[in-house]
Amino acid sequence: MSTDMWDAPLDDLDTTPMPGDPDAESILAAAVMARTDLIDDLAADGFDPADFTIDRYRWVWYAVEALRASFNPSTIRWEAVHRQLQAWKADGTMPSAPLPLAELSHLYTYADPSTAPWAADRIAKKAIAARLIAHGHDCINRGRSEAFDADADVAAVQTALDNVVRHTSDDSTVEVGDLLEDVFTAATTPPTVEDRVPTGFMDLDSLLSGGFMPGQMIVVGARPAMGKTTFGLCLARAAAVHHKIPTLFESLEMGRNELGKSIVSAESRVPLHHIKQGSVDDQGVQRLAKRAPAIKEAPLYISDNAHLPMPVLRARVRHLVRTAGLRLVVIDYLQLMHAPKAENRQVAVSEMSRQLKLLAKEFGISVVVLAQLNRGPEQRNDKKPMVSDLRESGSIEQDADIVVLLHREDAYEKESPRAGEADFIVGKHRGGPTGTITAAFQGHYARFVDMAVT
């Protein structure tokens, strides 16, 4: 009976050498000696000398790169390369044996710079194949490990798979003149829902030039019981239900059913406590039925996994960007996220904040992060929060493009003349104005609304 492949030792699954093309590597090593500017040309196209599988050829590339910085000739002869390699070998910089002088001379004699792009492409493709094989072995090893973690390990291999293929060019550098046309167009074209995510509040959208932009991280800070989750759901509903913008709501505190009830209450204006108690009357049922189709068709995805490491979130975002065109993520809330290992809590929160900002930028989405404030507001007479009240890490403020602080006077003073009102304090707005927007808080409907709606 043949041994099942899943029971076979890992070494028996594939004993063939890793992919590589020694001929292409020798051709490229010779070509860069004959024409040193190829190093810049190929690097601009995304070639990485780390893709060489034979150290001796890779070090020829490094030698040419070092020598041209010193002498800047268009051609570097094999003798100079040999001297550089021998010097590196002598001082321990080069761990392997360099090409002998005779072989360097032979390479130089038959150098053909015109073949360099072909050779670089061959080397890069073989390197991709090698990384893919290594990735497969890593998947097998993770799956066989007694410490296998379904969430963390699957997310990690998905991230690693994205890195198997490197970007082939660097398009991040442009001349300023190339930006003028886009700047002029933006200056004369009001933003639309196509390039902004509306917040659902007229004055807030006006302050933010139409809403949230792709790549932005927005932090919403508040003390407990101020309505962080309600505000986050308002943003998600405005995007997904009212503008059909694919949205992910990550809840680390409330369950999906509880969130569903809040969404339905806010959309139908049926009191939330009636829905929870099962006491909705006929008129309420009609209102529920009227809003049900819009809610059902909304591209709103809800996850209530209380254990949310960054790799898991990144994998989920990547999937929804590809399959649903995800544009907005709301996380409720930052301090409940699974923190990475770090020397202290502040460093861990700083790292999470940085990763969330990178997530927004990498996928071109808006990321709204709800965060809890420290007790600073309660120690002040007016109780109004400030950006510096964000708990545990000043890097949250630094990473955020926009910081919105929620404040309700009636949360501290029940008989306040401003009962039912809420302030959205935009305490930071990178590249734009700050200010305070007043809205109405309708807790019985689990929502905030514009004052004009009341």
Task: Outline the structure in words.
Helix 5 (78-91) packs antiparallel against helix 6 (101-109). With 454 residues, the chain is of the alpha/beta class. Mean pLDDT is 83; it is low at 1-8. The chain is built from 17 helices and 9 strands. The chain is 47% helix and 12% strand. The termini are far apart. Strand 8 (435-442) and strand 9 form a beta hairpin. A 9-stranded mixed β-sheet has the order 3-2-4-5-1-6-7-8-9.
Feature tags:
elongated; alpha/beta; 454 residues; 17 helices; 9-stranded mixed sheet; 9 strands; disordered N terminus
List the helices and strands and how they pair.
Blueprint lengths: L9 H4 L8 H13 L3 H7 L10 H17 L6 H14 L9 H9 L6 H29 L5 H13 L17 H9 L13 H6 L9 E6 L5 H16 L3 E5 L4 H13 L3 H6 L4 H16 L2 E4 L6 H15 L3 E5 L12 H19 L2 E7 L21 H6 L2 E6 L13 E9 L5 E8 L4 E4 L4
Parallel strand pairs: 1-5, 1-6, 2-3, 2-4, 4-5
Antiparallel strand pairs: 6-7, 7-8, 8-9
